[in-house]
# Entry
Amino acid sequence: MPRLGCAAALFVVASTSWTIGQTPATYRFFNTNSMGKLGQRIVASGAEGYGVQFVGRCAGRDVAVLLKRDGLGARTYEFVQTSRYATFVKELNDAGSRGFRLIRGTTASFYPSGSNWAVVVARDADGRRFTYSGVQANDEGLKALVDGTKRGATVAAGIGDRFILEETQGGGSVSAGETDREYRILSTEKTSTLEGEIKTSASDGYRAIESALLRVVMARDIGTTTPTAEYRLIAMRRASTAERELQAAGAEGFHIDLVPECTNQEGMFVLQRSLAGRRFDYRIATLKEETADDVVRGGESNGFHVAVLMNELAVLERQLPD
# Structure
């Protein structure tokens, strides 16, 4: 059975049999290696009232995007994509200075011919402007993160081996609650090591707040040492195996909290146990441009919603009855 490589197309996926009637498409799904074409489709779909939901976390040669007609009307998008990280941050800041804001969950780094960096930004409805900076997963990056939060910055995204901080220009004073936090940046080369470090930090009162490629930012209120969250990490090389593991963890009360970017061999999920005692069910379905609307809406008719997109794979989640 094929395993996961850089492109999520190597997954083998359990099939779904959901069908729905012929109605106008609620969802649009694009999966292409043409970044220019992808950007054009995103911009055009936004003008037609489609909102960007996800960009695939397992981008390889292709990058996938899922959009939904959500009834909120037209919106203005731009697709920032470059092959150099410094240029990526520069163009992201240019967009921010013009009133565009990074959409969480839409960053992607991929390697068809060298490194590439991409994100979807949307014009802010309130006319605010934004500044962005990148931090690495090391001591210098941790210091930059802490200094940034003291100015009012937040961790907006994880992309490749970096994290992106976002500040609102002219944001004014920062409340004490936003600064009275301690941070850790976890960085490893192995999935098993990352899980151990997440659990160790959680036992010290930290919670996971953002993830990148084998990297996780964790935070806690100053003075907090009591564990407030329980985590489990599931690695995915075969979709059928991952689906079973997600279902088993969901039955124990774990749900998907964060999804780090895929390595060239596997994807992964950071799960957190529900404090309310809820239980969850999961399915993994293949999306194609011509059938994605049927698949996603069929899942919704059975109580599922898309929890994460891993290129052409949609991980569907639903809460089980008490």
